[in-house]
Amino acid sequence: MFKGDEMNKFNGIIPAIITPFKSDGSLYIAGLKNELEYLYACGFKNLFICGSYGSFPLMNINERKTVCALCVEFCKEHNMKTIVQIGLTYPIDSMELAKHAEFMGADAISSVVPYYYSGSVYNDDTYIRYFETLINCVSIDVHYYNNTKTTNFNVSPNLLKKLMNIGLKGIKDGGSNTERILEILNIADENVDGSFDYYPSSTNSLLLGFLLGAKSCISGVSLSAPLEILEIYNLLKIGEIDKAIHIYKKVMNIRSLLNKNGARASAAYEVLKSKGVDVGTCRSPWKALNKTETHQLVKNLSDLEIAYEDAFLIDIHKQTSNVVVLDFDGVIHKNTKGYYNGTIYDEPVDGTREALEELAKKYKLVILTCKASRYRPLINGKTGKELIWNWLDKYDLSKYICEVTDKKPRALFYIDDKNLVFTTWHEVLNEINNKLEQN
After folding, report:
1. Residues 6+ away with beta carbon under 8 Å from 318
2. In a domain, 354, yes or no
3. pTM above 0.85, yes or no
4. Is there a domain that residue 435 lies in?
5. Number of H helices, E strands in the chain
6. Which residues contact 385 (CB under 8 A, 6 or more apart)?
7. CA of 409: how far to CAs of 22, 312, 319, in Å?
8. CB neighbour list of residue 399: distance below 8 Å, 6 or more residues apart
9. pLDDT of the residue at 320
10. CATH of the domain at 56
């Protein structure tokens, strides 16, 4: 499959990124960097920026420039390609955003039609003039973002051909039925140099699009289930269609779960945070999931056996030589009453601060504990992970810890109060028996 990929600039899965915000509604730059690092660590090679998932209608032009600049700079440093969505209601602002994206080094720009009047006053001639002006104001590729639901306009095959004739180089299309996908693919094949980029714009049409000949797909769900969606593409590349279909069914179940409490993009913030990727929150009037909704969503995703690997662990696997893993109870937290009532009630083990301070000078410190399991019930409305971070903050220890997880990462050393060092099975069994006799 995927013959002729070299003719397309963008191939494979393209995540539609969310834009992180702080609780006060301002841009959360650190959160955006966290998201980019995570997607790079997952293995993505292309990003779609400031689309519907990216809350573009909720940002002013300067905020969109800020997001564009940071994303494009990161992607250039990491050999990733970028498509920046620049559409607005006001075409002059769109032209300004297009020029800015080109100046920053974006690989392509994409645009919805100027909306609001798109379902009434505007017509095909309006859009031809708009895209002709857009194409003439930049030298990078210009793509059309066909979002019928939000613009109340659906590009016809005839209009698409006209736009291609004036220099349009790609389309992100919301149509997901077989007839529509084949129709757009046939039009794309008519392009003189064969370099027209067509990508279905929904996870819903991911499998069908690839099977019918599309070379890429833009997916918002890939933020929440990156490894599954990448695996679908990789399986299709080697012709393992049955296996790809099996995973695709799981992905569609994940998509349905993300829909349960409103917009899928709103759910993506909470899923990413539950994986250890701090992306802040959504911007009003979008509604963020509450703790109960988030806890239930994460549990349901886990029940689907989603590849739920913490973002930190994806990267940490490459850094074994400078990672030290620490147990929490009995090593950092005294835990003199055992589980007790599920809270973290005790003081730090004597010498903890000094030891962590010394280790943190040379190593990345990771706490490995079952308290961080997403299956663990909420205690006083908080997850185990939240309780641990709050306790670490209370004793000013969080600055030494890189991550808290229930997944065992590769490491140079593992420090555990119940640990046995394996040499031979004979010696281990003897040591266990000796310890049992002592107790």
Report:
1. none
2. yes
3. no
4. no
5. 16, 12
6. 371, 372, 404
7. 30, 9, 10
8. 360
9. 56
10. 3.20.20.70
